[in-house]
C-alpha cells in the first residue's frame, strides 16, 4: 500500500527531517519495492530446485502430485511450490529472530526505559548498518530498535499471507518474497544483538575479547551445574546476576549449549561453552547438569523427557516453548523450589528474575542429592554393545548417513575406532537409539570415545569496528586481501566436526579474513594443533588479513552483512540511508565476501543465507543442504555477464562469471574450499588483487584436484591477472583454450541494466 | 516400491525408481542410449567391494561402453592417478544444472546427454540431484550404480546387504557392455 498518508507515516518513523544522509529510493521498503533488483539478480543466478517432496499437502484439495509438469488442484506447479516452501522456511527463520528481538528489547525496556541510548563504544559509529540501509532510520535508542522490528513484523504478515492457497503462483516472485523477508531477518538480528550489547554491556569496540573454557570436560562436576540452552540471554544473565549478588559465582557452574552459551560468555567469562547443538543430547544424557534452563530456538522438544531420565530438572523460560509445563511465575518461590527438589518437577517461569532465583536455589539443593554417574568407559561400552543383533535399523535412520550399526558391532569386539568416527560425525539427534530394538544405549556409549579435554573459545565481540573497516576496506575492494569468509550456522555437519576448523585454518593461513558465528564459532575451538593451541589462540581476533574473529551468536550474523555495508559506506563513501539497491550492487560487484554454512540445519540458517544473497554475498552450503530445495546458480558459459560500466555508462560484456553462484551446495570440504576461493573473485578486482585471488584458487585446485582449474580462462581478464608463480603453465593453458583478453572495469554495476529509479550516478562517489 | 537404505531419502511422491536386480536389461538400456554420461562422486573413492575401490568398477563401466565421465567434488585427482582423464569436472549440482537444459551441448560438445549414470554421490545429495532431473529434465533418464536404492532415479540398483551380489551385478554389467 502506498499513498500520501503512508509516506507521512514512514517519514515520521525514520525522522526524515534528520539530515545525516540523503534519503535513498527505498525507505522502509514494502514487499515489492525491491522486486526489480531481485528479478535482475535471479536473471543471472536462477533458482535451482531439488524438490524434497513431490506432493503438496497444505490444503484439503490435496494431496496433489506435482511431479514434472503436473499442477496442483489450485494450479500451482512444482517450481512455484518450491519457492513457496522456501518462502515459508525463510519466514519461519526470520520470525524466530524477530520474536527474539521483540522479546529482548521489551525486556530491556522494562529494565532501562525506552530512551536507553545505543552506544557501541568509541570504535563503532555506524551502529546499525542494516537498519540504516533498509529502513533509512538512524536508531538512537531501544525505542528505535523496537520500531525497526515492528516494521519487519508487519512485512512478515504480507509475506506469509502470500503463501496461502490461491495467492502467489510464480516461482521467481516467491523467491523475491523469500529475499525480502530474509533481508528483514538481518534487520531483526541486528536489532536483537545491538539491544543485547547495550542492555547487558556485552563486549563492543574491542577485538581481544576473553578466551573461555569449552567442552563437557571443562565443567567441574563436583559443583552444582546449571545448563542454559537456546539463544536468548535474558534468563542466563539474570542467573549470573543472582550468583554475583549472593557471592556464589565460584560455587555454581554455568555452562551453555548453542547460542545461549555464546551470549552467556559475553556476560561472564566464568561461564563455559559445552559445545554446539550437536552435543545437546549427548551432554543432557551424560547427566552432568542438575538444572537446565531452556529459552528459545534449537532446543530439543523432548528436553523434559530426556532430563527426567537422568534426574535433571528443567525450567522453561520462553513463551515460544512452554513444553506443556505448569506456569509457576506467580507461585511462591519456596514452594516451586520444593516441588522441583522433592518431585523432580519441571516448570515454566516467564519472569526471568524469578527463573534465575529458582534455578540457583534449586540447583544448590538438587546437586547434593543427585548421584552423578561416572562416564561410561570402554569396558562398559563393550559390554553394552553385546546386545546388538546387527539389524541395521540404527544405520537406516541416521540423518547423517553414518554406519552406526557396523561401528557398534566393532565395539562389541573391542575395536572403538569406527565408533569414535561416528561420534565425531554425529549430529546428535538420537534417532539411532530410538530405532534400536535391543535398546542399546548408543549415546551413553559415546561417552567412552568422547574426548574429555578442555578446549577454548574466544568470546563473541559483536560488530566489526569502523576503524577496522577503514583499515581493510581498500584491500578488500581492490582484492589484495583475497576475501572475507563467514563461517556461520548450525552443527549439522556432513562429516567430522573438525572440517570447519580445517577450512578456517587453511584460509586464515592464506591471509583471508575469517569471521564466525553460532555453532561454527564454537567448533573451531575444538581442534588443537601440535602445540596444544586452538585456532583462537593461534590467530588474532582482529578483522584483518589472517584474523579469526568470533562475531557472536546467530543474531550476530547481522554484523557480517553490516560489515559489508560499512565497507560501501566508510570506504566507498556511499550513503546507506534507504539505499539498499546501491549498497547490494556494490557488495555483489566489489566486496569479495563469501558465507559458508557447512552444517546448516534450521529455517533460520535459510533466512540468514538468503538475506546474504539479496545483499550480493554468495553462500556455500554443505551437501545435505540440497534438502533446502533451492539454490541460486549461474551457468558460466551460457549466461550473459554484461554489466554497466558506471563511469562510461556503457553496457559491457565482461565474459566473466564473477561471482559465479549465489547459493551453492559443495559435495566435499575439498570442493568447498576451491569453490570458496573462486567465489571471492569480483569484477572490480585490481590486477594485483586478481593475481592474489587466482593464486589461491589455482593452488587449492591443484592441491585437491591435481591440475589447473578447468574454468581458469573465464577468470583471467588480461595477462597481468596471471599469478607470477603459475605464469608459464597458465599461459600455455590459456593458449590451448583459445583465450582472448577481456575488458577490465573499474566500476562494474548492475544498476542501469534493469528498470530502477536508482540512477547510475548513484553508484559513484 | 522399496524403501531407500537411508530413510531420510524416503519418497514423498508417486513416481519412484524401477529397481534393477539383473545386469542384462541394464546393459541393454545403456547400450540404447545415444549420448550417455557417467557422473562419479567422491564416495566412489571411499567405498570398496571386497577390497577393490568402487571407482575402479565405474571406470571399467565407462571404458566398456565408451561413456564420458564427469568427475564431481575432488574425484578428479584420483581418476588421473588411475590413468583416466575425465571429460569434465563439475560439482554434482553444477552438472545437474546443465543436464536439465535440453539445449546444453554436453561434456563433449555434441549435445545434451540422454542417459546419465551416477555412482559415488552421498545418498541424500544424490537423491536430491536426481529429484531435479526427475522433475525438470524429461529429455533424459537416470540410473544409479551404488549399492543403495535411490527413489528419484529412473532405474536404481536395490539395497544390497551382501557385497558379493553388488559385485556380481557390476561385473555382469561390465561384461554385458563389452
Q: Layout of SSEs?
A:
The complex is a heterodimer of chains A (765) and B (178).
Chain A (H helix, E strand, L loop, with lengths): L3 H10 L21 H10 L1 E4 L5 E2 L7 E2 L12 H35 L16 H6 L7 H20 L9 H30 L10 E4 L10 E5 L4 H12 L7 E5 L1 H9 L4 E4 L4 H7 L4 E4 L8 H8 L2 E4 L16 H11 L3 E2 L3 H18 L8 H8 L7 H5 L6 H9 L4 H9 L5 H5 L6 H4 L9 E4 L7 H13 L5 E4 L11 H11 L3 E5 H6 L11 H4 L9 E5 L5 H14 L8 H11 L2 E5 L5 H12 L4 E3 L8 E4 L8 E4 L4 E4 L9 E3 L3 H11 L7 H19 L21 H11 L10 E2 L16
Parallel strand pairs in A: 5-6, 5-8, 6-7, 8-9, 9-10, 12-13, 12-15, 13-14, 15-16, 16-20
Antiparallel strand pairs in A: 1-17, 2-3, 4-11, 18-19, 18-21
Chain B lengths: L17 E2 L3 H10 L3 E5 L2 H4 L1 E2 L2 E2 H12 L3 E3 L3 H7 L6 E2 L2 H8 L15 E5 L3 H14 L4 E4 L10 E2 L6 H15 L1
Helix pairs in contact in B: 1-7, 3-7, 5-6
Write up this protein.
Chain A is 43% helix and 10% strand. Chain A has 765 residues and is of the alpha/beta class. Among the domains of chain A are: 4-200, Substrate Binding Domain Of Dnak, Chain:A, Domain 2; 211-369, 3-Layer(aba) Sandwich (Rossmann fold); 378-448, no CATH class. In chain A, the strands form 6 sheets. A 6-stranded parallel β-sheet of chain A has the order 7-6-5-8-9-10, sandwiched between helices. In chain A, α9 (280-286) runs parallel beside α10 (303-310). The longest helix of chain A has 35 residues, at 78-112. With 178 residues, chain B is an alpha/beta fold. Chain B has one domain: TPP-binding domain (Rossmann fold). Chain B has helices spanning 23-32, 43-46, 54-65, 75-81, 92-99, 123-136, 163-177; strands at residues 18-19, 36-40, 48-49, 52-53, 69-71, 88-89, 115-119, 141-144, 155-156. A 7-stranded parallel β-sheet of chain B has the order 1-9-8-7-2-5-6, sandwiched between helices. In chain B, β3 (48-49) and β4 (52-53) form a beta hairpin. The N and C termini of chain B lie far apart (31 Å). The mean pLDDT of chain B is 97. The A-B interface holds A 48-55, 65, 67-69, 78, 392, 395-399, 401, 494, 623-624, 626-627, 631, 633, 635, 638, 664-668, 670-671, 675, 704-707, 710 and B 5-8, 11-15, 41-42, 72-74, 76-77, 80-81, 88-89, 91-94, 97-98, 101, 104, 121-125, 128-129, 131-132, 134-136, 138, 161.
